[in-house]
Amino acid sequence: MPTEEEKSLSEGSETVRRANTQSAKQLALALQSAVGLPDAYDCVFWLADELLEDTRAQLWQSIDGNMRELKVAYINSSMGWNPPEKRQELFNSLGRFILLSPVNKPDEVAGYSAFRFEHEAEEDILYCYELQINPLHQRKGLGRFLMNLLEVIGRRTKMEKIMLTVLDNNLAANKFYKQIRFQLDECSPTYEDLDDENGTEKVDVDYQILSKLLT
């Protein structure tokens, strides 16, 4: 169940409320405009509450098992690693999922994105909570395709920007997001890193909030 804060984010504007009423089938219409999906893969959409248990297990395994380096990055960060909280965030009922599977193995998750529609700081945003590609399927353009698809969805639903959080020590992710033109968002803790001369200490964090405008 969404917390009061999450519910506030999901109902903060009429645009976001409309986006959150869209079915998986309606969201999948974005595939008509997205580019870059390799022929060897299929793409499907799911709302969080509609996910099958086996699919949920695979999605969680991509973080808790397959992506061991990412798990270590969380453990060593100020955000910490709390499996129950992470599962709750991942499978929140407001979440939407894009799943990629090999054409010849439709039950195998090769990669996925988990996202939500939210209204925060007077802006309508598509927040990308997870972008995961199974190691066996990396370097095939799947991550770039998923981000392109999120942009299409964001524009179709009238969102103003895409946002995401990335750890400083996740060097590969930082490089990837820079390549696809994400920038430090003004709500990121280090956007205005004031010095002591202004009476404000520098913010000591090990993550950044990035964004890309859609308008």
UniProtKB/TrEMBL annotation:
Its EC number is 2.3.1.257. It comes from the Eukaryota. It is found in: Cytoplasm; Nucleus. Pfam families: Acetyltransf_1. The keyword Transmembrane helix does not apply. The keyword NAD does not apply. One of its GO terms (molecular function) is histone H2A acetyltransferase activity. One of its GO terms (cellular component) is nucleus. Keywords: Acyltransferase, Cytoplasm, Nucleus, Transferase. It catalyses: N-terminal L-seryl-[histone H2A] + acetyl-CoA = N-terminal N(alpha)-acetyl-L-seryl-[histone H2A] + CoA + H(+); N-terminal L-seryl-[histone H4] + acetyl-CoA = N-terminal N(alpha)-acetyl-L-seryl-[histone H4] + CoA + H(+). It is an enzyme of class 2 (transferase). Residues 65-215 form the N-acetyltransferase domain. Belongs to the acetyltransferase family. NAA40 subfamily. This is N-alpha-acetyltransferase 40.
